[in-house]
């Protein structure tokens, strides 16, 4: 566990900034995954109701991360890296718990709960493998990884579309091949342009902000 001392590394103002930053990133990421999951479901021939469910699941899949904000206190001091922390692995369960209370349907809930399962069984929370992973979770997994790769993160710049696809091909064992091939078609479709533009704008804003932060520190 994180000690009280570590949890007080940042003052209130800095903490508020981090929360704001996290929320903006979370909303932007949700919008991208939501749109991709909708388009991918359509490409896979799913009915409108399923596509809509996946759009909702895409928007809300990481909502449990908000519960982890209290573990982010040390981030700017480089003492903790959220991606390396085991608590992160709890977020899909937290997302499920939060949304179950709100009566979201089972398709949405199971897709969210399992959205970090890998096709080869190396994911979490249940190490499910292949077809035992709910179909919706396999769709989310593919969209989520791609959306993360093409977005700027506090610790790295965004990858371009081709590089993101190459990185995913290197790790293709994580994905359902039928879904992955359909996803490649989505990326080359006209409908994807809108998602791409949204992501580029979000990345540009993040870059502008980091330049402002850099000059503020001089
Ligand atoms: Fe996630």
From TrEMBL:
It holds the Pfam family HD_5. One of its GO terms (molecular function) is transferase activity. Residues 4-199 form the HD-GYP domain. The keyword Transferase applies. Keywords: Transferase. PROSITE patterns: HD_GYP. This is Putative nucleotidyltransferase with HDIG domain. It comes from Mobilisporobacter senegalensis.
